[in-house]
Amino acid sequence: MTVAETFSTNRLDAAAPPTLDAGSSLIRIDNVSKHYCTRHTRVEALAEIDLDIRRGDIFGIIGRSGAGKSTLLRAINRLEPIDQGRVLFDGIDIQRLPPRQLLAARQRIGMIFQHFNLLNSATVADNLALPLKAAGIKNRHEIHRRTARMLDLVGLADKSAVYPAHLSGGQKQRVGIARALMLEPDVLLCDEATSALDPETTASILALIRSINRELGVTVVLITHEMAVIQQVCNRVAVLEGGRLAESGPVWQIFARPQHPATRALLAPLTLALAEDIRERLSPHPIGRDGQALLQWSLDGSEGDPLSLAALADRFGPEAKLIQSRIERLQGHAHGQLLIAIPDGTLPSVTATHPDVEVLGHVAASV
Amino acid sequence: MSPRLFEALWDATLETLLMVGISAAIVWVAGIALAVVLVTTGKGQIFAAPRLHRTLGSVVNAVRATPFIILLVALIPLTRLLVGTTIGVWAAIVPLTISATPFFARIAEVSLREVGTGVIEAAQAMGCRKRHIVFDVLLPEAMPGIIGGFAITLIALIGASAMAGAIGAGGLGDLAIRYGYQRYDTTVMAAVIIVLIAMVGVIQLVSDRTVNRLKRR
Ligand SMILES: Nc1ncnc2c1ncn2[C@@H]1O[C@H](COP(=O)(O)OP(=O)(O)OP(=O)(O)O)[C@@H](O)[C@H]1O
Ligand SMILES: [Mg+2]
User: B3-215 architecture in CATH?
Assistant: First the structure.
């Protein structure tokens, strides 16, 4: 059974299937502020945050440690109360709901955690049954049917009677995801859901999250410290810095043209680092007769079609040498940097026609 | 040991089992309830109520600070009110229960506190009612520790029941004092001690097994 089949058959059971008009706003963070008072200090965890998360988004939240990411995520299901502003979930003002309705709203918001937070005293099946209990579903056949189906979805059909202590980290997170999806939520909140996993397991969990998003239409909001995660799965991203929104937008735009220093710092590991042996020989002035100029050309996704090699030769001349490069495809846009060496003699004509090229310096004849 | 003495030992053992058994049943329920209230009314917890939390804490401490032998005497009016007499097995159950409940509650409280805030938050995030959080998350997760703590409480109850025997509650303590202390009959004394050791051993064994079974999963 595919992911979509699993969910849609479930959807049919629901009294009124939720409408899925992609692109409309699902979560609106409206001027949200929140502070913590510790004994000696007052921390502005969130300050005047405005954000719009749309249906179908995989929305990434990044920022340094302590930037307020978790606080923001937890304001969405009101695990964290806020001081000021509104959090609208599908038009509902979550932070001002009476207790009963809050429980109902929370059942439409799934959440997974870095440390999984499964019940150790319950089998996998019983862990999955807890949200159903919360929703007042008591029929044993119904519970069995739904847990079996969801375990199938996350690829753990054979683990139903196992206790979490006997599962690997990746399997525990799959159980966490299955549990979060039991009530067919509109949105899945992920607080560093892959931070405790190795790279391979991370990739498989990300693939699962992406298929849940694509095939089931579940909107995803995720916090991560790994820029690669944002690059791989998110379509939009918000950068927090000291409780403030530094910037937000489509991933390819933010990654290609980071405006805020905080974003640049976070993205630094993704930028091309000049090889050590070249950096040592780099000089600000042209060297000798057959010296070379070192250029960096950043692709910011605005070029449109994939770069053709002929266009590259056109731009930099037939003697240009490609020294280093790193190109990623983000949402259909080429993004990355090229390091190119050209003879010093051709430099003026290249920079004249292509002012977006950055001259890093000069090296002697051979690079 | 004469058949008459053996019969006395048998009767005393049954009396102790009855005294401890009934007290234990009440202590199990009341202690866990008290522990849950103590944990959940704390600051930032699901039923946060600082005043109630502080008051209960003080009462628990006061009872725990009072030596059992003094509690036994101090509670005589209450015992008379509740069971109509101050002598016998039923009269002993009142002070036994009142002294053991706070003791067990504090032990259970520790286990309940060890349940991570993470699982509680996960339950809140999925829209669980507070009642579900207590009965489906807190209690099952803390159960191994609570059972271990209950064994300690049971063993303390057996000790206390022997003391209650001294004020005419019957049971093994009463027997040991009447024969062993007042009549210098060391055989009875030894027999009582052996029975007590056996009781404690069985309790510890059953508890350890149960806890291990729960923890192994
Ligand atoms: N319960 C709390 N009491 C006091 N201060 C808190 C509390 N929770 C968070 N803070 C503070 O609020 C700020 C934001 O915290 P938050 O957990 O949202 O950061 P974060 O971006 O998720 O960090 P990390 O990447 O380390 O998880 C931090 O300065 C933190 O110290
Ligand atoms: Mg965090």
Answer: Orthogonal Bundle (1.10)
Q: For chain A, say whether B132 makes contact (Cβ under 8 Å).
A: yes
| B window 174-213, beta carbon within 8 A of A | none
Domain residue ranges of chain B, discontinuous segments joined by +? 3-215
Q: What is the 3-state secondary structure (H, E, C) of B97-151?
A: HHHHHHHHHHHHHHHHHCCCHHHHHHHHHCCCCHHHHHHHHHHHHHHHHHHHHHH
Domain co-membership, A159 together with A96: yes
**In whole angstroms, what is the distance from residue A337 CA to residue A327 CA?**
6
CB atoms closer than 10 angstroms to residue A323: 19
Residues A182 and A213 in one domain: yes
Q: Domain containing A71: what range?
A: 4-268
pTM over cut 0.80? yes
pLDDT-derived band at A5, boundaries 50, 70, 90: low
**CATH number (domain holding residue A341):** 3.30.70.260
Report the domain count for chain A: 2
CB contact under 8 A, B140 and A163: no
- What is the per-residue DSSP string for A125-163? HHHHHHHHHHTT---HHHHHHHHHHHHHHTT-GGGTT--
- A262 and A281: one domain? no
Same domain, A263 and A300: no
A88 with A156, same domain?
Answer: yes
The predicted model gives A31-36 an average pLDDT of 93
Contacts of residue B119 in chain A, CB cutoff 8 Å?
A: 117-119
Q: How far is A77 from chain B (nearest CA, A)?
A: 7
Per-residue pLDDT of A271-328, as tens digits, reads: 777 888 888 888 888 887 788 889 888 887 776 667 778 888 888 888 888 888 888 8
Which one of A121, A130, A165 has the shortest CB-CB distance to B128? A130
Yes or no, beta carbons of B125 and A109 under 8 Å apart? yes
- pLDDT at residue A13, as a whole number: 40
Residues of chain B found within 8 Å of residue A192, distances taken between Cβ atoms: none
Partner-chain contact B140 A119, CB within 8 Å: yes
- State whether A119 and B141 contact (CB < 8 Å): yes
Mean pLDDT for A35-42 is: 89
Confidence label for A10 from pLDDT (cuts 50, 70 and 90): very low
